[in-house]
Amino acid sequence: MREINSRKVAIIGCGFVGSASAFALMQSGLFSEMVLVDVERTRAEGEALDISHGLPFAKPMTIYDGSYDDITDAAIIVITAGAAQKPGETRLDLVRKNVAIFKSIIPEIAKRGCGGILLIVANPVDILTYVAAKLSGFPENRVFGSGTVLDSARLKYLLGEHLGVDSRSVHAYIIGEHGDSEIVAWSSANVSSVPLLQFCTMRGFDEHEAAMQNIAESVKNSAAVIIEKKRATYYGIAMSVRRICECIVRDEKSILPVSAIQHCGYGVDGIAFSMPAIVGRFGVEQVIPIELNDQEREALQASAQVLKQVIDESVGF
């Protein structure tokens, strides 16, 4: 295993998400070196040049295009490569196309003895996190996906708008699949330690069930709405990538709902889906088994079963 450079990040895939993530990470000041890798190398070169030209306004950094040989010492390898989600297409529709792409990418990383963390961002992120973990042979703590980090941010934003409160004071998670079977963990949601329903009443809202359903649907459909309007989503996920990388580089041990291989006793073992987890220098340190009511627990099991069925039918191992 190669010695890692804690100040180096690699991004594989320079589409909308990869280039937006590269830009966000350049602005973060977390890294002093960034290598961009893409099947179309001239695209990676163009993105590296474009972002580099803004470095006089940012922290010192070396940004360049490269190959898999250039990523071996990266502390974090962000994988955004994959077919884009089209209007009307679910994340799970992408499975066969993107699993095939990962079967060409992950072995290239594995055979070079990379010692960094694999951060999976391409969709369907839960399936591809599972595939990356199995193909790489890396310890499970070092392979995880962006999961429902962005979904949870969307939830907090919408709740903040609904309640007229700073969204950073809202504490709530989307768990399970990053997709159609995702679950809002309403029973554990709160605003600065005040249970959510109690806070809603304090703010003059009594139509709890209707509001919760509308907000949950809005979160679930957010990506589809944005894709319909502008053909792709990339700013929100790029900021999510930046946040996850902050947790790793700074060893924050923050709790984020990332997608990782789960062994948390919710009825399905060995499948990747999102649960709150402590994220730090060595990746996923511990999954946090938050309190769920019976309905949420059943929905989480159903979500995991959806993912398991897709893996059994489509992944091939």
Fold and architecture overview:
The protein is α/β, with parallel strands linked by helices. The chain has 2 domains: 5-145, NAD(P)-binding Rossmann-like Domain (Rossmann fold, 3-Layer(aba) Sandwich), CATH 3.40.50.720; 149-315, Lactate dehydrogenase/glycoside hydrolase, family 4, C-terminal (L-2-Hydroxyisocaproate Dehydrogenase, Chain A, domain 2, Alpha-Beta Complex). It is 43% helix and 20% strand. The chain contains 9 helices and 14 strands. It has helices spanning 16-28, 41-52, 95-110, 125-136, 149-163, 196-202, 208-230, 235-249, 294-315; strands at 5-12, 33-37, 62-65, 74-79, 117-120, 143-145, 170-171, 174-175, 183-184, 190-191, 194-195, 254-261, 272-280, 283-287. It has a 6-stranded parallel sheet with strand order 3-2-1-4-5-6. Strands 7-10-11 form a 3-stranded antiparallel sheet. Strands 12-13-14 form a 3-stranded antiparallel sheet. Strand 4, helix 3 and strand 5 (117-120) form a beta-alpha-beta unit. Helix 1 (16-28) crosses helix 8 and helix 5 packs across helix 7. The radius of gyration is 19 Å and the shape is globular. The mean pLDDT is 93.
